[in-house]
Amino acid sequence: MNSNDKMDLLPLEVYNEPWLVEKKPKPIVNNLIEILHVRREEVDGIWALYFNDKSLMNEIWKLAVKSFREGKLNGVYSIKCSTNYVNPKGITPTTGMLIFNCSLPPDEETILELGKNILETFNYDERRTIYYKINEYNVGASCYPNSRGYTYKLDNHLYELKNTKFMVADDK
User: Fold this and answer.
1) Of 96, 99, 107, 150, which is the most exposed, with the fewest CB atoms less than 10 Å away?
2) Which CATH code of 3.40.50, 2.30.30, 3.30.760, 3.30.2420 fits the domain covering 11-25+43-171?
3) Looking at the whole model, is its pTM more than 0.70?
């Protein structure tokens, strides 16, 4: 199934696939020079939100799709939401997850601004910190490949963003 077939599905109604995905069409790149230029100026990575109450995932997914389609998540090229998929071992996770795949300029300010926008859009209050993880090999010397071919800093993320909902007056 492609993302158009899943347009009206809700995560808690899906049992045969682990993720619902909404994607933007990929831009057509005409030549190798253009590909190299884009690759050098942008970094692919993810912001992820975790939800302890999985029963909220249908409403969260609706908000994510609406925000994504309206262009409110600048830099995000696809979103994924966990479903009620039962894995081969018969386990269904009790928590939910929403992933934002991003392609952004490799500067901290831009990446953190998107993270702040995500926190605000979803009024997120489940975790004290969210993390931006990259999957680019050539971002810097502190990145190393793992067994899946992705690369991460040794501490498994490039940036972390403190959730202001958990900050006391002295921290702000």
Assistant:
1) 107
2) 3.30.760
3) yes
Pairing of strands 43-51, 143-145: unpaired
Which residue type, as a one-letter code, is found at position 88? P
Q: Which residue has the tokens 């490039």?
A: 158
Q: How far apart are the C-alpha atoms of 80 and 98, rounded to whole Å? A: 6
Rounded to 5 degrees, what angle do the CA atoms 117, 165, 171 make? Answer: 105
- Please give the angle made by the CA atoms of 148, 86 and 79, to the nearest 5 degrees: 55
Q: Given the DSSP bridges, would you call strands 129-134 and 76-82 parallel, antiparallel or unpaired?
A: unpaired
> Strands 151-153, 129-134: parallel, antiparallel or unpaired by DSSP?
unpaired
Where do the domains of the chain lie?
11-25+43-171
Distance CA 98, CA 112 (A): 17
Per-residue pLDDT reduced to its tens digit, 117-138: 999 999 999 999 999 988 654 4
